[in-house]
Amino acid sequence: MLAAKLPCKETIKVLEEPIPVPKKGEVLVKMKASALCRSDLHRYHGVAIFDEDDEAANITPGHEPCGIVETLGEGVTRVKKGDRVAVYLGLGCGICPDCLRGDIMLCPEFGCIGFAVNGAHADYMTIPEENCLLLPEGMDYITGALATDVGGTLYTACKRVELNGTKTVVIIGCGPMGSGGILMAKGFGAAVIAVDTDDERLKMAAELGADHVINPIKDNTDQIVKKITGGVGADAAIVTAGGSVPLNSALNVIRTKGQVALIAESNEAVIDPSNQFVRTLAELKGCWYFNRGDWEEIANFIVDKKIDLNKISSHTYPISEAATAFPLFDSGKTQKVVFVWE
């Protein structure tokens, strides 16, 4: 089989490897779609984000996959050959309180597929049975891949800031995650204000259903949001761009007792706690991935609300062209880049 590797900084090689054999409790999945993620680019640039060890160069990346169960390992009882599955990226100890309630990503022993073990940018991958997420009827493979990291994370963020048809949300950053947020927020019925410094991304945000778009380089985001909301401020904000500026913008545009969901990774940020929290009773909520037990709810929401996640897949490639796909995605001029298999 073919598998993409990151042997050294900013280098992609597609190698021939044996098809892996599932161990006890595992299944072999034949890939149908595997999306590139910003986290893949950290490895591409030689930056560790999950305390990868010296063997990381041998690990196949990819943690947003979808495919068909091909072979069952010993002891597998809940998944069958031919099942169409997406893949939950988290590996945990299985017995801590976080694992037991489905928040695998919070496990003290958390490992991420594509970082701790071989991932999905390959023709086949093996995963534990419990990481299989069954696709509902009517969900295609690209949607299935995007429904995990993008769809699941943004669905969770929308729920955590309590979006509904009476709420207005500001989404800051209109890359793939922010674009997915627009689709999800509209599915919840909320009015969406999209903010980004890239006019092309704002154009797409409008096409995805954003009710208003703002380029903060050209216009005053705070003033425009206040005007749109009758001087009150937005009910919520979702931040998918890292750093102090996007986070401060989110805290400044929400109303008193407003809520901010922070998805963007960032090593540090400077805020004004007194004026942005203490005197506004604002809530800042971290949003990282989704509870495994919520998958059926998330998948059915995407199907029932006809949320077309395919719209944020701007480029598709066979895995043999991984060396082209990675730098293109790294350019920031695309939405989601997805490897596909016929």
UniProtKB/TrEMBL annotation:
Q: State the InterPro entries in the record.
A: ADH-like_C, ADH-like_N, ADH_Zn_CS, ER, GroES-like_sf, NAD(P)-bd_dom_sf, Zn_alcohol_dh
Query: At the top level of its lineage, which domain of life is listed?
Result: Bacteria
Q: Which UniProt keywords apply?
A: Metal-binding, Oxidoreductase, Zinc
Q: Is Transmembrane helix among the key words of this record?
A: no
- Which cofactor does the UniProt annotation name? Zn(2+)
Under the heading Pfam families, the entry gives: ADH_N (PF08240), ADH_zinc_N (PF00107)
Q: Which GO terms describe its molecular function?
A: oxidoreductase activity; zinc ion binding
Please report the stretch or stretches of sequence annotated as the Enoyl reductase (ER) domain: 10-339
- Gene3D superfamilies annotated for this entry? Medium-chain alcohol dehydrogenases, catalytic domain (3.90.180.10), NAD(P)-binding Rossmann-like Domain (3.40.50.720)
SUPFAM superfamilies assigned: GroES-like (SSF50129), NAD(P)-binding Rossmann-fold domains (SSF51735)
**Of which family is this protein a member?**
Belongs to the zinc-containing alcohol dehydrogenase family.
Q: What is this protein called?
A: Alcohol dehydrogenase, propanol-preferring
Organism from which the protein derives:
Faecalicatena contorta
